[in-house]
């Protein structure tokens, strides 16, 4: 007689779209979902990225090849943002969960240098695209509390950082967006994950050299109660949790290594 699998198979055969799944946290989430038996479609900013990501995942999980797919979707252009999102959803079709981890270069800037164009662009991928996604996603989600949308913010939403007024405002705004969407889209669940500093490619994409990145991660890690800045594979566990727990909605999971305590 076989053992019951009441908990370990909760995500088996679930169809999940990971927006921003070509690198960093999104890529780790895609890996974790594949290992949990999901059918995963990753979305990247362009077709080449999507194709190369599918190749990487397939090499790591050759037996799961039939469960891995990729699509491209540019979230950085205001004029095409909504149409690009609807096109992506149409191509992917029905899914059980959508995870939004997409991000662009960290938009820190002195307040004196801010203008409307910079403000809008800073929020295009991180704030406006989740809102447009929520507008159209219900049509493509399987529905009920078994389906969910999970968004991503950052620790700056909980602890301000100098010269981050613009991006910090969007990050904090995502908390309110999540709570509101949990009501507007019910019974579909909507949650938010808030990572602190994470060792991903984003640091290099934001203009840090290898030495600057390593110096920051070492210095920051020494201040954290955990003693180390995590990799994305640790943060991925928070996303798995909110997908599995069918009783959580409108919530933010903070995974910051205790850095907000010191």
Automatic annotation (TrEMBL):
<dbReference type="InterPro" id="IPR057571">
    <property type="entry name" value="SDR_PhqE-like"/>
</dbReference>
<dbReference type="InterPro" id="IPR036291">
    <property type="entry name" value="NAD(P)-bd_dom_sf"/>
</dbReference>
<dbReference type="Pfam" id="PF23441">
    <property type="entry name" value="SDR"/>
</dbReference>
<dbReference type="GO" id="GO:0016491">
    <property type="term" value="F:oxidoreductase activity"/>
</dbReference>
<dbReference type="InterPro" id="IPR051122">
    <property type="entry name" value="SDR_DHRS6-like"/>
</dbReference>
<protein>
    <submittedName>
        <fullName>Uncharacterized protein</fullName>
    </submittedName>
</protein>
<keyword id="KW-0560">Oxidoreductase</keyword>
<keyword id="KW-0521">NADP</keyword>
<comment type="similarity">
    <text>Belongs to the short-chain dehydrogenases/reductases (SDR) family.</text>
</comment>
<dbReference type="InterPro" id="IPR002347">
    <property type="entry name" value="SDR_fam"/>
</dbReference>
